[in-house]
Amino acid sequence: MKENWKYVIIAILAMTLSSITGYAQNPIVQTCYTADPAPMVYGDRFYIYIDRDEGPDYYNMNEWRVYSSADMVNWTDHGAQLPLTAFSWAKAGTAWAAQCIERYGKFYWYVCCTDTESNINAIGVAVSDSPTGPFKDALGKPMISGGWGYIDPTVFIDDDGQAYIYNGGGGTCKGGRLKDNMMELDGAMRTMEGLVDFHEATWIHKYNGKYYLSYSDNHEPGQEGVAGWNRMHYAISDHPLGPWKHIGIYMQPTRPETGVTNHGSIVQYKGQWFAFYHNSALSGDPWLRSVCVDRLYHNADGTIRMVEQR
């Protein structure tokens, strides 16, 4: 009975906060556990692509889900529009961080999972005619593979139409150009220079003509079974492939009692900027995370103000 009251109280607080702030309650999704948020604005609607934590003692994940909203308060659950089984080559339980982006009326969902045959991490891509799916494997094989560093794909399309893809883990972040078909590299990937204490969770956004690369670090590493209590950093460049100038931290860890990892993303919607992330405040379990969102502000000099987590 006490457990039921816990969720009632959380729901009441969430509704109160959303009415005050004018955007989503935290956590955004309270019907299952979600992580690694990747937002996308398409038309007048806001979409968020996330993977689902299943636990019990590791990042056991078997599907990617879609949610959308027209007001950042009320969210529609479109379900698991991309199950891991859509990739015949993927190992069970490895539906990790992913991002969806639109190009020429098609929607490309870049995912991270483990290749069953080689047992190394790889990046695949699924495609759909709709932002809410259904999606299907576009290649029938990994698009990029190579080991631990080939995780957390993110794609950015610049104002001139050139698309770039990034991935990174284990201390190294790489980026490269994509061909117009969005499924082939246009040249070799190269290491992003100038980053400090890079861990994973690459994300790119552009503000006032500058490129921003944000990522999680290895703050206080050495905890058994985890890389550290992740903070979110950012670096700025005049070019989407760097070199980058490390600026600092825009989000502190989500606290040991609410999770040890973080995976952030930054996006503009209807003239306002938002920072997405995840924590374990709803579950109290580091393996069962929940996606959250808060406002993000750029200062006059282009730096980012520290995000206040609700």
Give a topology summary.
Layout: H1 2-21, E1 33-42, E2 45-53, E3 63-69, E4 76-77, E5 82-83, E6 96-103, E7 106-114, E8 121-128, E9 136-137, E10 144-145, E11 154-157, E12 163-169, E13 172-178, E14 190-191, E15 200-207, E16 210-216, E17 232-237, E18 245-251, E19 265-269, E20 272-279, E21 290-296
Antiparallel strand pairs: 1-2, 2-3, 3-4, 3-5, 6-7, 7-8, 8-9, 8-10, 11-12, 12-13, 13-14, 15-16, 16-17, 17-18, 19-20, 20-21
Main attributes of the structure:
single chain; 310 residues; mainly beta; 5-stranded antiparallel beta sheet; 1 helix; 41% strand
In brief:
The protein has 310 residues and is mainly beta. The protein has one helix spanning 2-21, and strands at 33-42, 45-53, 63-69, 76-77, 82-83, 96-103, 106-114, 121-128, 136-137, 144-145, 154-157, 163-169, 172-178, 190-191, 200-207, 210-216, 232-237, 245-251, 265-269, 272-279, 290-296. 6% of the residues lie in helices and 41% in strands.
Major beta-sheet overview: 5 strands, antiparallel
Number of helices: 1
The proportion of residues forming helix, as a percent range, comes to under 10%
General shape: globular
User: Which residues form runs of ≥5 with pLDDT under 50?
Assistant: 1-20
Number of beta-strand segments = 21
Strand content: 35-45%
Q: How much is the radius of gyration in Å?
A: 18 Å
Secondary structure class reads mainly beta
Overall pLDDT: 90
- Topology pattern, helix = H, strand = E: HEEEEEEEEEEEEEEEEEEEEE
Separation of termini? 26 Å
